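Give me a protein, keeping tokens residue-aligned:
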Amino acid sequence: MTPTMVAVRAGGARAAIELRQLFTNAQDLIGQFFTPALILVALYFMRNGTFEASGLKLGALALPGVIGSIIAFNGVFNIAQYLVLDREDGTLLRAKATPNGMVGYLIGKIGASAGSVLVQVAVLLGIGALIVGGVSMDGAGSWLTLVWVAALGLLATLPLGAIFGSIFENSRGTFFLTMPMMGLIAISGIYYPITGLPGWLQAIAQVFPIYWLGLGMRSALLPADAAVIELGQSWRHLETAAVLGVWAVAGLLLAPMLLRRMARRETGVGMDVRREKALKRVY
């Protein structure tokens, strides 16, 4: 077996261990499902609202977009946070010192992040569909759309998280990352159809993956006639695949370069300095 394959297997084992720890620790479970619980509460209060004269329920329109935003937000934020914290406690330095250790480390983090995101998606879809009603999975085509949009969305967002994690040197950087992410969620038609927003905000939203993830999820989970409230009155599957694909390719090309540069700069002295700063923030 080649060294790369050994690293891949080690990464898979690492992902399995981290997921098991995540879902067997009460504190981690609370953190994992706190946001989905708040979202479900919001959907409950939206369940009887309708969008203008369309008769479509706001809750049913919001649920697919929320699922898309969970994929985007957690795909970016989880990886970035992992990298920052692991730089502070020396995990990344130990991975660097192991042959092909960075390969195994990244595979493990990507697998753990993707697994946690997909569990949240399953919970939101299962419980949210019961709360809001109006969700329509019309056969194998809808399930196939759900799968490829989710997979392509993760490919588009996980590398972005690795990029930000390689740039930020402490956890404060990841905190400030949440602000523009929440702003993008607000203008991406997640909780209210994007057609109700000004044209210039629509244009900005369509540059980023969050809007397209929401659109793709709505195309999978809503009846075909719900497309009437979308831009161009179409689900625009080709455009969705193209935009998410461009983000995925760009991220997969850029992330390894930045991570290699970060790993080269990683030293024991730098780790000690960051650890001391982190302890000062705590105490």
